[in-house]
Structures are given as structure tokens and as C-alpha cells.
Amino acid sequence: MRRVSIFGATGSVGQNTIDLIARAPEDYQVVALTGASNIAQLARDARRLRAEIAVTAHDHLLDELNAALAGSGVEAAAGTAAVIEAAARPADWVMSAIVGAAGLAPGLAALEQGGTLALANKESLVCAGQLMLSTAKAQGARLLPVDSEHSAVFQALVGEDMEAVERLIITASGGAFRDWPVEDLENATLAEASSHPNWDMGQRITIDSASMFNKAMELIETREYFGVSPRQIEVLVHPESMIHAMVGFRDGALMAHVGPADMRHAIGYALHWPERRTLPVERLDLAQIGQLSFRAPCETRWPALRLAREVMETGGLAGAVFNAAKETALDAFIAEEISFNEMAIIVEEVLTQMSATPGHIDATMTLDNVAYVDHLARQEARAVIHRRAG
Ligand code: NAD
Ligand code: MG
Predict the structure, then answer these.
(1) pLDDT grade for 168, boundaries at 50, 70 and 90
(2) Which residues does residue 170 pair with via DSSP β-bridges, in sequence order?
(3) Which of 130, 139, 147, 190 is deepest in the core (most CB within 10 A)?
(4) Which class would CATH give 2-145?
(5) In the CATH scheme, what is the code of domain 315-389?
């Protein structure tokens, strides 16, 4: 029996992970499941998977969680510290699927206990990639990609020599607005940005797909995982979302990873790695599909891609600033305080402001410094939002 924990168990990736684990309950002992507001879901899954502990990130929901777990034998806990403590419980395999920078500290705690961390939470690599990688190395822990593009690159690299790699191409569906006239983006509504043409995901990542902030974060994530230079990473718009990534080798060959838009593939690959086991995903009928298409990404439509390149150029804690400003701008868009296009304008302004102050972006990458810079960037982003509104 493998001991497994799922952080962000109530979310889209978390539920897909539970779907796979629940198909073979005899293979797994579930240690911890965590969630935030959806207590009913958290308690239901903790009961049926016989988890040791269920944790909500919200302190004030402890009583509700205790009541929902009464008589089940599952321990209940609440609060940010309790989530991190749960990550420190020994486990062989941990899924990191909390959304946002809140996933960083639990991910690091899981790496510190030395098991395998399956990483869906791309924000932790964007904010603190070098810290994640050095912690994994020091503890002999393994970091496996779960983001579909990075899982695809990882799979295309099996048995290959990184020396022979010329470029990594990650694809992007283009999100909800890929076919809209650029001038209409200004008036894009929250409802329009919250529906994805191909993938069924949480609301935040769906909006980030429409703005390309998701792909922007994935550019940085690619650099961190595979240690290539930013120049070697390309984004390719591919509306059908069937090729997830391609690896280009020095002999001109391109190895493409092709599969259905179903996160259970990448999750299952990380769950069973280094084996490849049968997974309950659709088998593609390419003759039926007929055609795949590709376009170059347009930086006027998607300024987030240019910002990600600038962040990689700057290095240091620029990724933490970028992510925090993006999360704050996204909150404001979701609250309908700012327009769709203002998200990128705000992120750029925060990056400019914070780069100008010594001791922020150039500080050493420790968890405390990342948290501090994250805090300042959110404050700055709110100030920018306030100024623009007034
Ligand atoms: P989601 O919004 O569906 O779920 C997020 C989970 O995080 C929930 O369990 C929620 O309770 C928990 N959570 C939210 N705020 C929290 C906090 N402050 N502290 C602790 N827990 C908190 O999100 P998702 O779509 O499942 O995405 C999860 C992560 O995986 C994100 O980093 C996302 O970028 C990444 N990812 C998702 C997909 C996808 O298909 N959904 C694909 C690739 C990568
Ligand atoms: Mg992805």
C-alpha cells in the first residue's frame, strides 16, 4: 500500500486525482486530504477513502468539518498551519493541487519529508522554483510535473539526453478569446472569460487561460523544470489541445505528445511513474478528428507572454512578484472591479515599481523572503487598482 496525500483535494485536479485513487482503493492508504470552503465534499471523500486526516484551510470551518466527520474516525484540523503540518506527515506520494501561492509552503513541507511530489501547483515553481528544486535535491525527494504540457515534455524526454535538446514547445489552446477581435477584449466579461473551449478546470486557471497568464506561468515553469534557457522555450497556439508539447532535438526531430484534454492522463502518469498503467481516458481517433491546426501567439493580444519573458530575464524574486500581482489582479477581475485588459497593465506596473526598489526582487530566495515580497506585491497591486479606479 502506498501512502498518498492530496492537497487541494476538493478542486478540479484534486477530484481527478481522487477519481484515479478510488478506482484501486486496495493500492493506497490515504494520509491527508485538504480543501478550503467545500466542507461537504472534503468530508465525503475523507470518509470514503478512509483518510487519516482532513484539513480545511479556513480556521472558522473547524466546527463544521468536525460535525461532518463525526463518527468516521477521520481526524479534523483547520488553518494554514494545519495544512502545512499535514504536508509534513510521511507519505510516499503527495499531490500538490492547491491553487495559487498558498500551495508553496505545503509543497515545500512535503518535499522536506522526502517522498514524491506530483506538482500541479505551478505557482510554487513560478514564485520559488530554485527553492523547490534545491529542497527536493537536498532531501532526495522527487518532483514530478502534473501540468499537462510539462508532463508531455517530461514524457518526450524519457531516454533522451538534454544535451541533444534544442527547444521545448508548449502549446496553448488560446483560451476563450483566441478568435475575438483584439479591440473587443476590453469589454470581455467575467462569464465569458470563465468558460474554456477545451478543458474543464477551476475558474481561476480558466480565466488565466483566456488572458494567457496561465501560459505565461507555464513558460517560467518550463524553464524551472527542465533547466533550459528562456530562448529555447516557445509557445504555439493549437486550438484543438491535442498536442500538449513538443521537444525539438538537434537533428531536427520533433517528438510530440498527443492525447485527449483530460488531466487524468498527466495525473495518472505521475501517480504510476516510472510505470505506464492503463488509464480511463478517451482514445483519440485521429481519422475522425481529421485536422490539427497551429498559429503563432500574438503578444498584442496576450501581453502576459511578454511579461513572463521579462520576468525570466530579471530572475530572482521577479516570479513571486509576477504571481502575486497576477493573483491580486485576477481577484479584482473576478470581483468585477477591473476590466479584462487591466489585469496585464496592473501586473506590469507592479513589476516596474518593485524592480526599482533594491532589496525586493534581488533578495535571497527563502520562504520568508518570497512571502514578504508576495505580500508587498499584493499591496502594490491593490494600490494600483485603487489609483486606476479613482
Ligand atoms: P480549483 O480552484 O478547482 O481547486 C483549488 C483547490 O485549492 C481546492 O481544493 C481549494 O479548496 C484549495 N484552496 C484554495 N485556496 C486555498 C488556500 N488559500 N489554502 C489552501 N487550499 C486552498 O483549482 P484547479 O483547477 O484544480 O487547480 C489547482 C492547481 O493545479 C492550480 O495551481 C492550477 O494552476 C493547476 N493546474 C490545474 C489544471 C486543471 O486542469 N484544473 C491543469 C494544470 C494545472
Ligand atoms: Mg497546462
Answers:
(1) very high
(2) 235, 245
(3) 147
(4) alpha beta
(5) 1.10.1740.10
pTM over 0.80? The answer is yes
Domain chopping of the chain, boundaries:
2-145, 150-289, 315-389
Tell me how far the alpha carbon of residue 248 lies from the centroid of ligand 1, in angstroms.
Answer: 31
For ligand 1, which residues put their CB under 6 angstroms from it? 8-14, 35-36, 57, 83, 97-99, 102, 120-123, 147, 199, 201-202, 204-205, 263
Q: CA–CA distance from 209 to each of 84, 206, 297 (Å)?
A: 29, 5, 13
52-109 tens-digit pLDDT:
999 999 999 999 999 999 999 999 999 999 999 999 999 999 999 999 999 999 999 9
pLDDT, residue 169, reads: 98
- Binding annotation for NADPH: 10-13, 36, 38, 121, 123, 202
